[in-house]
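Suppose you are handed a protein chain with no further information: no name, no annotation, nothing but its sequence. What can you learn? This example shows the usual starting point.
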Amino acid sequence: MNYLLAVEHSPSILLIFRVPAIIPGMDVSHGSPGQFDVPSIAAVVSSRQWPLISRYRASVRTQSPKVEMIDSLFKPTSDTEDSGIVRELLLDFYTSSGKKKPDQIIIFRDGVSESQFTQVLNIELDQIIEACKFLDENWSPKFTVIVARKNHHTKILPASISGQCSACLASS
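A reasonable first move is to predict its three-dimensional structure. Written in structure tokens, the prediction is:
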């Protein structure tokens, strides 16, 4: 192990990590404007080896061009098999965390417009819940979804002499 975050050395680890928690970050990348035949790339990076929070695993899938919602989080191929991203990441978390299932799933979703917030909950969160139930129908982790909006125009400026970092909204 080459490094640990300072908080991982502390005996008073953050409250959210007193129970097994997994943190997936999700985003979709699209082709250049005008390229409608190039597949979009859905990527999910997820924490592993709980209680550490600096170890991650990535999973990537292609999907239809210009589609923002990730459609491969839960992909049942039979009554007992699922080839989705969430299953892959949850199984990795389970094996790398001493056979513990996460009690909390804290999802960071990037690049979503305000009009798509409901779709994140109705499409992506539903897929994640289905993937969890597919693994164990009696397992009910708690979910938190944090969305970083698309086109927010926020800029972080360098720290001032006092050490404070001021933020301003760019006018566009």
